[in-house]
Amino acid sequence: MKTGSLRLRLMIAATCAIVLALAIAGFGLVLLFERHVERRIGSELDTYLNQIAARTVFDEDGAASLGGKLADPRFDQVYSGLYWQIADAKTGLFTRSRSLWDTNLDLPEDLPALGVIHVHDVAGPRGAALLTHERRLIFDTGQSEKILRLAVAIDRADIADLSADFASDVTRSLLLLAGVLILAGWIQVNVGLKPLPAIRRGLTAIRGGETDRLDIDVPSEIAPLVEEVNSLLDAQDKAMQRARDRAADLAHGFKTPLTALLADAKRLRDKNEGEIADEIERTATQMRGHIDRELTRSRIRNIRTSAPIEIGPVVQGLIDTLKRTPQGSRIEFEPEIASGLAVRAERDDLNEILGNLLENAVRHATKGVRVRAAPHGSAAGFDVEDDGPGIPAAQREAAIDRGKRLDSSAVGAGLGLAIVSDVLDHYGQKLTLNRSELGGLKASFTLTL
User: 137 pairs with which residues across the strands?
Assistant: First the structure.
């Protein structure tokens, strides 16, 4: 995928959204788990407080102790992380679990209300942070009443270990889920963008002349785009038709004045005014050439490439026409066209290109004109050659230069080559002129198959 592709942008956006959402979800799950674990452990600590309260006994001196052992063996393991303690608020005497060994739980100095369980974080053995549940109760010793502070504590490291294990499991699960969601996102993006290749193929078909409209089934969100493209194609067709109509009107409008000028030139020549007649004829010919060139430009400005046109019949038709002219009747034509060879071009354009080149070759040829067309990769290569005087190398560029008045050149190439160059430029091709093996000019170009 290209860096600027829509598919890549959508995948990056989807991936970022998935990762962000899962990261937030993972953080929230771990936080909720920690709260759940703390509540669960707090419930266990409260149970231990009730057991301690139920098992507290007093000796003859009124000293409190625990009658029997609690069920959890960690209370008997030194520094195990689970501790209990009974403190006499009046005498300051302590009774504690074996797990505390020679240390005491440093409970806050503020005294909780009687019977109410208070939760503290206190420092424990070896600097451990302890989650502590404390409760103050009144006991009847048989001789008097005593207020004792009962406390049970657990090392928060145990809670942290549980949270870390849970976070590790959640991370692996979320990574797997992220992979699945990214794959699903990739499938979704490709399904969502599936109409775009169909539009591209449709446009390729239009450019290739296989169809003139986008006639494809697309989602409702893309349908307006297809409609706009079809509207643009309709507008282009109408503009092209208007241009052709204007070109035809212009040609018809100039036809009568030019014919009148040529008739005037003939009358002047009949009156022995040959110099003036030649000048009028030369001017009229120049005007006709310029008109033909501009008409060709207006016709090719907005056209689309059509269906493939077979070259052989076009060339043969042009040769048959030229043979009926005084100049063409004396020329021997050598067509060498590959069988079935076709190019993607408008028929009128192909006639314009080959017609001008063949007419130019006939005008300057001595005896023969050769036209070749053969495939070269994805294109067809054309050569039109004659055995005439040719064009000197220094003047070949001027022969097809759009800014030159070729009628004033010594070789008299006219505007035919410039018109051919204009048409080929529309197809992204270029006309090249070289010396032919026959001795005259060789005009070469290519068109897409």
Answer: 148
Is the per-residue pLDDT at 366 higher than 70?
yes
Summary mean pLDDT of the chain: 84
Residue pair 23/170 in contact by the 8 Å Cβ criterion: no
* Residue linked to tokens 């699960």: 173
Q: 70 in helix, strand or coil?
A: coil
Residues 284 and 315 grouped into a single domain? no
Q: Radius of gyration (Cα) for the chain, nearest Å?
A: 50
- ∠ Cα 341 345 351 (to 5°): 85
- Which one-letter DSSP state was computed for residue 111? P
Locate all alpha helices (DSSP H) within 271-346, ordered by sequence: 274-300, 311-323
| Kind of pairing between the strands at 332-337 and 368-376 | parallel
Indicate the number of domains in the chain.
Answer: 3
Contact 331, 369 (CB under 8 A): yes
Q: Both 291 and 361 in a single domain?
A: no
Mean pLDDT of the 426-442 span? 91
Domain boundary among 103, 127, 162: 162
What pLDDT digit, counting tens, does each position of 103-125 carry?
888 888 877 788 889 998 999 88
Confirm whether 264 is domain-assigned. yes
Residue 349 and residue 405 in one domain? yes
| Same domain for 296 and 314 | no
